[in-house]
Amino acid sequence: DAAKEFMFNLRAALKAKYKDIEFVYVAFDTQAHIFKEKDVDKFFKVRLGGGTDYGMGYETCAKELKANYP
Question: Whose CA is closest to 32, among 13, 18, 46?
Fold first, then answer.
């Protein structure tokens, strides 16, 4: 799968440059779902119900950043 390969290569490049980097993945439709790095396989397998609410994705990212990465 092209998306999975792209993310693998991007993670490898970023990890080479930044030693203490942590990855968090957000999938969204009408709701947003957060996946930590250890759950990356679940992120690529998740099946969402439909719809595309970008605002929900951005809002969830902002909350995650504020709560866990001050």
Answer: 46
Count Cα atoms within 13 angstroms, Cβ side, for 4: 8
| Cβ atoms < 10 Å from Cβ of 16 | 9
The residue with tokens 């250890």 is 38
The model's pLDDT over 40-58, given as tens digits with 9 standing for 90+, comes to 888 877 887 777 777 888 8
**What are the φ and ψ backbone dihedral angles of 22, each rounded to 5 degrees?**
-130, 135
In sequence order, the β-bridge partners of residue 26 are 34
Identity at 32, one-letter amino acid code? A
Q: In degrees, to the nearest 5, what angle opens at C-alpha 59 toward C-alphas 57 and 64?
A: 95
CB of 47 closer than 8 Å to CB of 24: no
pTM equals 0.72
